[in-house]
Specification:
Strands 1-2 form a two-stranded antiparallel sheet. It starts with a strand and ends with a helix. The protein is mainly α.
């Protein structure tokens, strides 16, 4: 059994993985007694989940480019034939493409991608490295 804010739930009604997820989530919320787990889920659904649901890196990049065009930004930010897109965005999209969901992209995976692309920083100056990292 699990108690939180006076309510009781029986975790054995859940599968093993769900029980682990609930316990981990509740541990993260331990210092915030006024926040319920269901509130976190609703917040995520309403604010963090893209309208299209779980999307790939490729889909995310395509949506990013749409947003850039909707903002009426200049060609530097919107032209897929331009050097900014071809240098920074397209290689990233091509590398991850449909193989990885956007939600699965971690700093570790992004850094590994940049390390591989830069020859483990040997071929890029610190300024060049930061330009790629910040795009």
């Amino acid at each position: 059994m699990l108690e939180r804010n006076g309510s009781t739930a029986i975790l054995t009604d859940l599968g093993d993985l769900a029980q682990v997820d609930v316990r981990k989530a509740l541990l993260l919320l331990k210092g915030y007694p006024s926040i319920e787990l269901s509130q976190c889920v609703l917040f995520y659904i309403n604010h963090a989940m893209p309208e299209s649901g779980i999307i790939t890196i490729k889909d995310g990049v395509e949506r990013y480019m749409e947003i850039q065009r909707e903002k009426n930004l200049g060609e530097v930010s919107t032209d897929e034939k331009g050097s900014t897109y071809r240098t920074y965005i397209k290689p990233f999209k091509d590398h991850f493409g449909d193989k990885l969901h956007l939600i699965q992209l971690t700093p570790k995976k992004a850094t590994a991608y940049l390390n591989k692309r830069s020859g483990n920083k040997r071929n890029w100056s610190p300024g060049h490295w930061n330009s790629h990292r910040n795009r």
